[in-house]
Amino acid sequence: GLTELDLYDNQITKVENLDALVNLETLDLSFNRITTIEGLSSLKKLKMLFFVHNKIEKIEGLSELTELTYLELGDNRIKKIENLSANKKIQRLFLGANQIREIENLDGLDSLEVLSLPANAIQAIKNVDRLPNLRELYLPQNGVREIEGLERCDKLEILDLNYNLLKRITGVRHLKNLTDFWAKSNQLQMMEDVTELADLPRLTLVYLEMNPFSDSPTYRSKVIRMLPQIKKLDAEYCRGFTSLQ
Predict the structure, then answer these.
(1) DSSP codes, 23-45
(2) What residues pair up with 159 in beta bridges, in sequence order?
(3) Where does the record place the U2A'/phosphoprotein 32 family A C-terminal domain (predicted)?
(4) Are 25 and 88 part of one and the same domain?
(5) Which residues of the chain have pLDDT under 70?
(6) CB 137 within 8 A of CB 128
(7) Pseudo-torsion of CA 224, 129, 57, 19, nearest 10°?
(8) What is the pTM assigned to this prediction?
(9) Per the CB 3.0–4.6 Å rule, which of 159, 185, 198, 238 could disulfide with 210?
(10) Listed residue (105, 136, 144, 98) closest to 120, CA to CA
């Protein structure tokens, strides 16, 4: 039977008439006019579900989808992370461009590797240290004021905090697997804060431009001196690294 169905950009307002498609593994309903997640409960084999750019206000109707590994709900009207406790196999969760204020209700999602929440209304990093396999955390374009709550995120590789309200670089020195630290366009004042990143052996790509401290003419040379392990600063290769080897 059919395993993939693409209904992208079809002016659909309601999810219905899918019950017979019991072998479906991928369903794309992006760029429609859907307001409610419903009509999916018979799709027990569904692994990937896309609802980008609809009018969805609530995460619901997913409790039967226990095989789901990939959920994309970006660019909707969602205000709260909720009703995902049955989706234990979820590995990648994309909730960008919604109206979410809190990182919450992720307990038990032990398979989650990628959590993406750009362009929401999040002010604090919370409840992510309960995600033992989290590798990538994307929080650009929020209102985050402090790097905190990552105490147990030992596997974290990518931390994206571009376009937030950070004043200090803190709370990351224990993240020994971190390869990417992105904090461009924040309110970072103190160059010495960069030493928080100095002992991260795998750190490769760092973004710190568009901060108060990056206005200094010696900014680039200072950061590279403090972080000899990195290959790229603000999208430009550091001397001696011409390509990512």
Answers:
(1) T--EEE--SS---S--S-TT-TT
(2) 137, 181
(3) 216-234
(4) yes
(5) 240-245
(6) yes
(7) 110
(8) 0.96
(9) 185
(10) 98
Is residue 134 one of the residues assigned to a domain?
A: no
Question: From the DSSP assignment, how many helices (H) and strands (E) are in the chain?
Answer: 1, 12
Spatial contact of 88 and 111, defined as CB atoms under 8 Å apart = yes
The CA-atom distances, in angstroms, between 204 and each of 108, 133, 181, 224 are 31, 21, 8, 11
- Yes or no: say if 54 and 33 are a contact pair by the CB < 8 Å rule: yes
Domain total for the chain? 2
32: phi then psi, degrees, rounded to nearest 5 = -125, -160
Query: Which CATH number is 54's domain given?
Result: 3.80.10.10
E-state strands within the chain: 4-6, 26-28, 48-50, 70-72, 92-94, 114-116, 136-138, 158-160, 180-182, 205-207, 232-233, 236-237
Torsion angles phi and psi, residue 182, rounded to 5? -115, 115
Supply the range of the domain harboring residue 42: 1-121
Q: How far apart (Å, rounded) are the C-alpha atoms in residues 177 and 153?
A: 10
> What is the residue whose two structure tokens read 């550091």?
238
DSSP single-letter state for residue 19: T
